[in-house]
């Protein structure tokens, strides 16, 4: 794939989502404290953002600091996020992470972020983009699926690290921090219908 063509395709997607009045809020957006951003991203794994956000809002109303969340009984946290996929694992992770950041604060270095329970490459990268405007690419299911469909990578869907590195090589660094936002927003807006998504992708391939 030629880099200039990929950039044109990305910009087409950017314009497409900007014209859509029903553009969804993503789980990483709109929080007033960075610890909430981090916890919300952890909660959003394998769960639609539209489902994650109201659960996170209620959780933060109940536990309005990482210290309180870290000290909360595990069963109470599980009940608060029960409607999310993998809620038991997520409950353990957000409790453990809240305990750590309640004492030390939220790290803003990639290597320190991925040491936290429940924080992998995607979560760390999305957090750094949202909170620090860092050049990073968070590769989730939407990014993997669409990058493959657009021929931006030849890696398999499960190889998130490989896809991340392919995208880093394909796009100049100034585009990195917009890739997750654009592809996830497109996926959540148009991906509910495979037919519609595939029609748009076919059009974009011919750019």
Key features?
207 residues, mainly alpha, Endonuclease Iii, domain 2, Endonuclease III, domain 1, 2 domains, 66% helix, globular
Detailed description of the structure:
The protein contains twelve helices and no strands. The protein has 207 residues and is mainly alpha-helical. The protein has two domains: 3-24 and 136-205, Helix-hairpin-Helix base-excision DNA repair enzymes (C-terminal) (Endonuclease Iii, domain 2, Orthogonal Bundle); 34-132, Hypothetical protein, domain 2 (Endonuclease III, domain 1). The longest helix is centred in the middle third of the chain and has 18 residues, at 87-104. The protein is globular, with a radius of gyration of 17 Å. It starts with a helix and ends with a helix. The mean pLDDT is 95.
As for the number of domains, it is 2
The tally of beta strands, per DSSP, is 0
The averaged pLDDT comes out at 95
User: From the alpha-carbon coordinates, what is the Rg to the nearest angstrom?
Assistant: 17 Å
Name of the CATH first level of the largest domain: Mainly Alpha
Residue share in β-strands: under 5%
């Amino acid at each position: 794939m030629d880099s200039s063509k990929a950039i044109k395709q990305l910009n087409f997607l950017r314009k497409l989502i900007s014209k859509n009045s029903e553009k969804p809020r993503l789980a990483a957006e709109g929080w007033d404290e960075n610890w909430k951003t981090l916890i919300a991203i952890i909660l959003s794994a394998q769960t639609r953002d539209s489902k994650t956000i109201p659960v996170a809002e209620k959780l933060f109303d109940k536990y309005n600091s990482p210290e309180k969340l870290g000290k909360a009984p595990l069963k109470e946290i599980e009940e608060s996020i029960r409607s999310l996929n993998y809620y038991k694992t997520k409950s353990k992770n957000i409790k453990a992470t809240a305990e750590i950041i309640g004492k030390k604060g939220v790290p803003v270095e990639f290597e320190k972020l991925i040491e936290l329970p429940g924080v992998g490459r995607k979560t760390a990268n999305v957090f750094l983009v949202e909170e620090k405007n860092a050049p990073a690419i968070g590769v989730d299911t939407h990014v993997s699926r669409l990058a493959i469909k657009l021929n931006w990578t030849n890696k398999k869907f499960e190889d998130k690290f490989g896809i991340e590195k392919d995208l880093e090589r394909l796009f100049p660094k100034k585009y990195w921090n917009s890739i997750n936002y654009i592809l996830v927003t497109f996926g959540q807006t148009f991906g509910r219908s495979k037919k519609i998504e595939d029609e748009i992708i076919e059009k974009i391939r011919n750019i």
